Amino acid sequence: MPGWMQAGGWGLLAGSSLVIGALVGYFVNVPRRLVATVMAFGAGVLISAVSFELIADAHERAGLGPTVRGAVAGALVYTGCNMLLARRGARHRKRSSGQPAADGDDGSGTAIALGALLDGVPESIVIGASLLAAAGGEAGVSTATVAAVFISNVPEGLSSAAGMKRARRSAGYVFGLWGAIALASGLAAVAGFALLGGAGAALLAGIMAFAAGAMLAMIADTMIPEAYDEAHLYTGIVTVLGFLIAFGFSVH
Predict the structure, then answer these.
(1) Closest by Cα among 99, 103, 73 to 88
(2) Residues ≥6 apart with Cβ < 8 Å to 27
(3) Residue closest to 250 by CA, chosen among 12, 1, 39, 56
(4) First-to-last C-alpha distance (Å) of the chain
(5) Where on the phi/psi map is residue 30: left (φ > 0), alpha (ψ -120 to 50), or beta?
(6) Are 149 and 46 in contact (CB under 8 A)?
(7) What is the pTM of this model?
(8) Cβ(206)–Cβ(63) under 8 Å?
(9) If you ran DSSP here, which 8-state letter would residue 104 be given?
(10) Which residue, 225, 5, 235, is CA-closest to 97?
C-alpha cells in the first residue's frame, strides 16, 4: 500500500475517536467530573507524545536551534489563531458547559468548527510525518503517536459534544462537525507525509517542532482548563498517569 494511503488511514483512525467521543457525549449523560478526568488523562498522554515523539526526535535530527524556533513558531501561530476564534465564540469549544447557544449564534458555530480543525490538524500532520523513514527509506507509523492522539481525541469529542447539546445545537451539526474533522485528520496526515517526504533534516525537525509547539499550546489553552474546571485537585495526578502510560508505549 502506498505510504500516503497508510498515512491517511492512520490519520482517519486517530480522528475517528472524535466521533466515538461525540456519540458518547451526545447520547449518554456522562458526569462532568468523569469527563474532566478523562480529559486530564488525555492531556498527559499528548504531553508525553509531544516530548518523546516530537521534540526529542526534532532535536536528534537537527539540534536545539531549529527545534526551539519551530516550537515557538507553532505556539505563536496556534495562540494567535485561537485568540481570534475565541473572540468569535469558540473559547469554550472543548467544554461540556459554557458554550454559546445555537439560537444566539453570531458566528460561534463556524468559530467552533474552525477551532476544532485548528486543534486537530497539527496532530494529524505529525502522524503522517511519523510514517517517513527515520533511516534507510523504510516507513513505519509511530504507534505511540497514533495511540496518544486517539486516546486524547475521545474526551475532546465527548466534552465538546456534551457542551454543544446543552447549547441546543442539533445532532446533525454535532456529528457533521466531528465527522468532517475526522476526515480532515486523514487528509492532514496525507499532507504531512507528502509535504515532508523530501524535506531536509533541519526543515523536517522545524516542522515537527512547529506541530509540537502548537499541540502543547492547545493542551495548555483548552484541555487542562477543561479538566481543572471540574476535576480540580485530581487533575495533576491523572495527567501524570496519562503521561507515564504514554511514555511506556514510546519506549517499547
Answers:
(1) 99
(2) none
(3) 56
(4) 26
(5) beta
(6) yes
(7) 0.80
(8) no
(9) G
(10) 225
Helix axes of 171-196 and 143-166: crossing angle, nearest 10 degrees: 150
Q: In Å, what is the CA distance from 186 to each residue of 16, 91, 125, 192?
A: 9, 25, 9, 10
Residue pair 28/183 in contact (Cβ under 8 Å)? The answer is no
Residue type, 66: P
pLDDT tens, the chain, 252 aa long: 777 788 889 889 988 998 998 899 889 888 888 888 888 998 898 899 899 888 988 898 889 998 999 999 999 998 998 888 777 776 666 666 656 666 655 555 566 667 777 777 787 887 887 776 443 444 466 777 788 888 888 887 887 788 788 878 889 988 998 899 899 989 988 887 887 766 677 887 888 898 899 889 988 887 888 788 877 888 999 999 999 988 887 776
**Contact by Cβ (8 Å): 191, 131:** no
The cell for 67 is 527545534
User: CB–CB of 128/1 below 8 Å?
Assistant: no
